[in-house]
Write a structure and sequence with these properties.
Length: about 190
């Protein structure tokens, strides 16, 4: 409703649905402290840093103690393919859905000019599945920015302006993430 009110005078269509790889109703978990952390991913609730990290923040509480989620509500789903069919092929699709990226990507069955998606270090296998799926759709170049510990930490990352074929990207992604997570564990 907030988005509908905000964009009521613009050429923006707001769907009160979750993008998913099926049209089934899906559970939506609203985060009490930060709407941007709300999710439809049960896996994200079980394994993400927002619900599991023991890292102590400046206020003395753990990272996971900063975020709490309401009981789920059921929401309808829509496919990316349906949005493309209704509105035409976009220049760019940006996906930031807190752990549900793979399902959103799999709701697209055609190549679009560009796609970008957030990923979470807890789900490396899902990132690799996403890249592999996009490769099957015809995407040939992949790149990433590894932003693991903070906005200031960008050492040893894959350069965001460099792109690689699928196999090379996956190898670089896994090796860079392994090195960063190893260094992160040493700093605790």
């Amino acid at each position: 409703n907030k988005l509908k009110d905000m964009f009521s005078n613009n050429n923006v269509v707001v769907y009160n649905k979750a993008v998913n790889n099926s049209l089934d109703e899906i559970d939506f978990f609203e985060c009490l402290e930060d709407d941007g952390v709300s999710t439809v991913s049960k896996l994200y609730l079980e394994k993400s840093c927002f619900t599991t990290s023991e890292k102590v923040m400046s206020d003395g509480r753990t990272f996971k103690d900063h975020y709490h989620f309401k009981l789920p509500i059921k929401v309808g789903s829509i496919l990316l393919d349906d949005l493309v069919k209704e509105h035409g092929k976009p220049d760019l699709i940006k996906i930031d859905v807190e752990g549900h990226e793979l399902e959103v990507i799999k709701s697209l069955t055609q190549k679009v000019p560009k796609i970008t998606f957030e990923w979470h270090e807890e789900f490396v296998d899902r990132v690799i599945q996403s890249v592999t799926y996009l490769s099957e759709l015809g995407f040939t170049n992949f790149g990433t920015e590894i932003w693991y510990t903070s906005a200031d930490y960008h050492d040893n990352e894959i350069n965001e302006n460099e792109y690689y074929n699928t196999d090379t990207f996956i190898d670089l992604f896994k090796s860079n993430l392994k090195e960063i997570t190893s260094n992160q564990e040493k700093s605790y």
